[in-house]
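__Protein archive entry__

___
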Amino acid sequence: MPDDLTPSDFAQDMRSLIARTELSRRGFVVAGTLAGGFALAARPVQAQSMITTDTEGLTAGEVKIPVAGGSIPAYHAMPASGGPFPTVVVVQEIFGVHEHIKDVCRRFAKLGYLAVAPEYYARQGDVSKLKDIPTIFKEVVSKVPDAQVMSDTDAAVAWAQSTGKANTDKLGITGFCWGGRVVWLYAAYQPKLTAGVAWYGRLVGQVSDLTPKHPLDVAAELKAPVLGLYGGADSGIPNDTVEKMQAALKTAGKPSEIVVYPDTPHAFHADYRPSYRKQPAEDGWAKMQAWFKRHGVA
């Protein structure tokens, strides 16, 4: 752990790191557009199980979100009429904002939300053209600071509010894999968050200047209730780390919960991949909706 971080000041230290990062990036222009289709490393797509959500009755598409130094691309979807709508930030998998994440946004919009998915890797590189996960991690993901991710999530919420169509007093966040970890961290960072749902996000990891803390480290600092959805046969997230997180939440007295689906692998919600498991995915989606309703997002 860096010397200037203590066990109980995650939000304060993130804001300090954000301020330092933004100061160092004055004049740095962030640009780019979202990838079309699916990331190369996520192919071949399992078309027989893939869910495709249309845009009928929706306003949806790419937008630019203002951030320090420029803007980053994002995908958004919301009902075409009415509002303001409860707001949910959708945090990408390791593959960036490709077609699956866009479809998740449309699914939320069909439920009456304004959903926005910022491209968190915009400054570090385009992962959609990289052919395997180890290369994605080495070339891009390992260079993405948590402080940048927290700041970009705040920027996505601010953009949603600026549309006049978002009710950010009803603010949710959900994320998958890489994004599941982000959900836990954002719940420890942002006191304005209403609730979160983390799909199989890593709970422990190496500490560095870019990733000073992990979800297990901030379990006692959560400012909003988080529902964790995990696979009992996830080879990348050992069951003992899930059990440690459950124990930490209980010790802290936090109203967060973790559901573990037995004999279920990582990425079980990813309907375009061989890891997809229909029953846990559908049950998790239903539990997520109920969680948001229970805690005042919906």
